[in-house]
Specification:
Blueprint: H1 9-12, E1 31-39, E2 48-56, H2 94-106, H3 110-113, H4 117-129, H5 131-142, H6 152-162, H7 172-183
Antiparallel strand pairs: 1-2
Helix pairs in contact: 6-7
Length: 193
């Protein structure tokens, strides 16, 4: 007799009956358990029922680790500009940025703010040096409203986020005046005499 078995199969069933034994694996909670096994008999119309009771011991060892094999593999995605909708997009080069700066400086109203020619050249040099950063700042500020134009509220909000506005050195009214002055069209730039 197997000591791990719940009951002795040889005592209950004939040799012919052993061909019809079915085993069902299942999990049972630790503690006292009751279950019923029905067995059909040839000489009886109704099956015979056997009630059983057993005590399931608590498992002391950890269950064996099992890792479920995934049927699908994860695709590691990476961005490729050549295979995207941005394929025809031209990235900024130093030459493109400098040509844009030359074009933009022709349309500036910088002489309204900076009267000294030497100071104006310094301002232009600083702007040219930081042209790529200023372009990204312009895109960020103009994307809040009427792209590609920067509106008054967008400019002021950008200055507040950048920390330009403070009560002591640069109040909000000074930023507003700068925006209004820049927005005025210079008749000389429009070709009027």
């Amino acid at each position: 007799m197997n000591t791990d078995a719940i009951f002795d199969i040889d005592k209950i069933f004939d040799d012919d009956d052993l061909t019809h034994i079915y085993v069902i694996p299942l999990f049972m909670k630790p503690g006292k358990q009751h279950y019923v096994v029905s067995y059909p008999r040839k000489e009886q119309f109704l099956p015979t029922y056997y009630t059983h009771q057993l005590i399931i011991k608590r498992r002391d060892e950890d269950p064996p680790a099992q890792a479920k094999q995934m049927k699908t593999s994860l695709v590691q995605r990476s961005f490729s500009k050549q295979n995207s909708v941005f394929n025809n997009w031209k990235e900024d080069t130093d030459e493109i940025v400098q040509n844009a700066m030359i074009h933009d400086t022709k349309l500036w109203s910088l002489n309204r703010f900076v009267k000294d020619e030497e100071e104006r050249e310094k301002v232009v040099d600083v702007v040219k040096l930081n042209a790529a950063v200023l372009k990204n700042a312009h895109i960020q500020a103009s994307s809040r409203g009427d792209f590609p134009y920067v509106q008054w509220g967008d400019f002021r909000a950008f200055c507040e986020r950048a920390g330009v506005i403070d009560k002591k050195n640069c109040p909000g009214s000074a930023v507003d005046r700068v925006f209004i002055t820049v927005e005025k069209v210079d008749p000389e730039l429009m070709g009027a005499k």
